[in-house]
What does this fold into?
Amino acid sequence: MLKKNEEIDLSKFENEKRTLLLFDGSLPVEEITNNWYKEFKNSNYGAIITFVGVVRDEDGIDGLSFDLYEPILNSWFDAWQIKAKTLNAKVLMAHSRGDVLNHTSSYIAAVCSPKRRVALELIDEFVEDFKASAPIWKYDIINGKREYALDRSTKIKGAGILK
It folds into this structure.
């Protein structure tokens, strides 16, 4: 496991295929998860665990809308890939940009690992860190308008207004 602030030689990961997918609108869940399964089932992973986030119909919303900042998202995700690689695992993620209506998916995460315990622990840690640290902003869609979901948002560590 990586220690906090541990230096990593990124050059050995340059040929790794990026496994972060971004889509406009709702995610094609079956296509994404089936493609991941087909791609990684012969890679000698004993576990491929997926988490699919579905937009709930609550509080009178018609759905959610998402803005994201790709440079920081890519850096955040790459750090997770490196962490996973130290455990002989791989993390995969798909996320939506823009509007995602109720009962459809905006987020899919997966972990591939030779060992199920590693995959189970890593998927939990990855999803929780995603909610706390990924540079993605959520809006409620109410009557066709986007309203920032402040009460369900988490401030990104280190973010704020400079004075």
